[in-house]
Specification:
Low-confidence stretches: none
Number of helices: 0
Helix content: under 10%
Structural class: mainly beta
Radius of gyration: 13 Å
Order of helices and strands: EEEEEEEEEEE
Distance between the termini: 40 Å
């Protein structure tokens, strides 16, 4: 089983960019599909974007399409989330998560990082 550690969160002005990273331990990273979730204060956790184990397939929530890009480097055991044109409503704790099954199945993610805070000032 992999262990996940996120980094790259912080404070950014609206319209700015951040890149989050999620480093995974273990030699089986390439067998996991990966997702980025976020949870804003008082709201449910939502799946923002996901990527298949090979990187060939991706998913984006409508709210981030055209602004966020997910990518992975299986040689380095890292998954990235490039966030552009950030809006105040993007502010949340962002979590990376892993699953050995369907990258589109929110309930299938069973390994989680500790989360990283993203704050967007207007």
């Amino acid at each position: 089983q992999v262990q996940l550690v996120e980094s790259g969160g912080g404070l950014v002005q609206a319209g700015g960019s951040l890149r989050l990273s999620c480093a995974a331990s273990g030699r089986t990273f390439s067998s996991y599909a990966m997702g980025w979730f976020r949870q804003a204060s008082g709201k449910e956790r939502e799946l923002v974007t996901a990527i298949s184990w090979s990187g060939a397939r991706t998913y984006y929530a409508d709210s981030v399409k055209g602004r966020f890009v997910i990518s992975r480097d299986n040689a380095k055991n890292i998954v990235y989330l490039q966030m552009n044109s950030l809006k105040p409503e993007d502010a949340a704790i962002y979590y990376c998560a892993a699953t050995r099954t369907n990258y589109l199945d929110r309930e299938a993610y069973d390994t989680w990082g500790q989360g990283t805070q993203v704050t967007v000032s207007s």
